[in-house]
Amino acid sequence: MTLIMYLLHHIPLPLLVVFPLVLACCVRTDTARRRGWMLIAAPLPMLLAVLLWYAQGQPEFITEIPWLMLGLHWRFDNTLAPILLMTVLLWTVAGIYVWQQLRDNSADQQPHIARYIRCWLLTLSGNIGLLVAGDIASFYTLFALMTFAAFGLVIHTQTPNALFAGKVYILLAVIGEGLLLSGLIWGAAHAAAGELTPTAPLISSLPAAIAASANGVWIALLLFLGFGVKAGLAGLHWWLPLAHPVAPTPASAVLSGAMIKAGLVGWLLTLPLGDFAAGGNFANVASLAVILGLIGAFGAALMGVFAKKAKAVLAYSSVSQMGMITVMLGTGWLYDAAWEAILAAIVVFAVHHGFNKGVLFFGVGWVSALSGRAATLMLVFLLIPALNLIGVPFSSGEYAKDLFKHVIADLPVGLLYPIFSAGALATTALMARYFYLLRKH
User: Fold this and answer.
1) Coiled-coil regions in this chain (predicted)?
2) Of 15, 81, 352, 429, which is most buried by a Cβ count within 10 Å?
């Protein structure tokens, strides 16, 4: 144990993130099917580091490499730690799922296994890396790596539907990256103004710099929309219901359970929220967040109940759930004094959604592989995450939603409280449709 603790304190964080990239370089086309173990091994070093970090009481853990890129600054963030743990666990379980698929003889008929494994490892590296990157250059590099590598997961089957979904995905991805890069460069320029050091500013310096800028509203809008593409923001969400039905089941699970939270993480790290919001005029952008969140929460549910595939229903459900999170974000942006409590509710809701939505996606593959009584038992088991998402009493969903509702109950939000509470009805309709389609097929 002493040796493990020593390694935890002395191994640089970049090595944990680069490990999947090293494994990706070792994938060969002729032996790819036997490399499924890499998908399980790739997230394990980060998972072990996070668990040990938790065991030590979450002490400060920072890695700085001034000479690399524009100056690396990576750390375990106490606020994002639950999302990081959820992300790594979900990628680990999904890796086990793929490994089992590759062991099946039918995997011999699947094309492009080597490309699939490489894209999986690259996407994993970007996803876990952006959660620990503290400088702007590293954060954007890893975010872009995750975004573009995931294209290979979407088009893996290379069916006409998969290729069309890939086109929509990459189009929205490029638009989002353009907005994001513009906002980050603009914000970084304000953050670096007046500094004598040549290193790039930290991402933690962006909220204050944006709040103090005369163009802060426009920078915040660029970042909100740029990260909104990945977060499934209403109007920018079209890739989700197209990509999930065609992507392999484990890829859909990480796309919806983990990767979609990268957009939320970007919002939390870069937008002028809490005390920073008090110094700027961000009410219009915050109100836009609330409006788009409500449209996503209920509009996606309305579209999802007419979907004809279970994974498409789950995709619309993710848009709906992220709409609720967007409502939380916008409300906390408007009422900055309540931001700390709302931030806790957002993190809990994000972790709750990631775990439960991942299980529901896995369930599509599990049910299709079973028959008779075994399939029925699996459907009964899947009621647990479904009821959690709905927010029935004594569930994680009830706890996550109550954290937010307790805060806004004392705020002058008008009809927002009953409207947000009605989100459980939208989720119930989607879960009913999900089980109907699973049982039908």
Assistant:
1) none
2) 352
Q: What is the pLDDT of residue 317?
A: 93
Q: Which residues contact 354 (CB under 8 A, 6 or more apart)?
A: 83, 86, 87, 90, 257, 258, 261
C-beta of residue 136 within 8 angstroms of C-beta of residue 241? no
Concatenated DSSP letters of 355-368: HHHHHHHHHHHHHH
- What is Dmax (Cα atoms) for the chain? 70
Answer yes or no: are the C-beta atoms of 421 and 405 closer than 8 Å.
yes
**SS3 for 131-164, per residue?**
CCECEHHHHHHHHHHHHHHHHHHHCCCCCHHHHH
Name the residue range of residue 22's domain.
Answer: 1-154
**75, 84 contact by CB (below 8 A):** no
Instruction: Mark whether 119 and 179 lie in a shared domain.
Output: no
Can you give the C-alpha Rg of the chain in angstroms?
21
Tokens of 183: 């906002």
Distance CA 173, CA 258 (A): 17
Residue 376 to residues 100, 370, 373, 381, 435: CA-CA distances in angstroms? 22, 9, 5, 9, 11
pTM of the prediction? 0.92
Q: Convert the pLDDT of each residue in 114-133 to its tens digit.
A: 889 999 999 999 999 999 99
User: How far is the C-alpha of 283 from the C-alpha of 214, rounded, in Å?
Assistant: 15
Q: Is 100 exposed, middle or buried (0-12, 13-18, 19+ CB in 10 A)?
A: middle
Looking up tokens 């028959």 gives: 371
pLDDT digits (tens, 9 = 90+) for 85-123: 999 999 999 999 998 888 775 544 456 888 899 999 999
User: Rounded to whole angstroms, what are the CA distances from 194 to 201, 214, 244, 270, 394?
Assistant: 11, 16, 46, 20, 52
- Any idea how long the chain is? 441
Domain identity same for 119 and 177: no
Which of 94, 127, 154 terminates a domain? The answer is 154
Does 178 lie in the same domain as 120?
no
Whether residue 170 sits in one domain with residue 150: no
Is there a single domain that holds both residue 102 and residue 127?
yes
- Give the DSSP per-residue string, 299-333: HHHHHHTT-SSHHHHHHHHHHHHHHHHHHHHHHHH
Last residue of a domain, one of 103, 121, 154: 154
Q: State the total domains in the chain.
A: 2
Pair 271, 411 in one domain:
yes
| Secondary structure (H, E, C), 70-94 | CCEEEECCCCCHHHHHHHHHHHHHH
Given CA atoms 29, 33, 34, 39 in this order, what sign does their dihedral have? positive
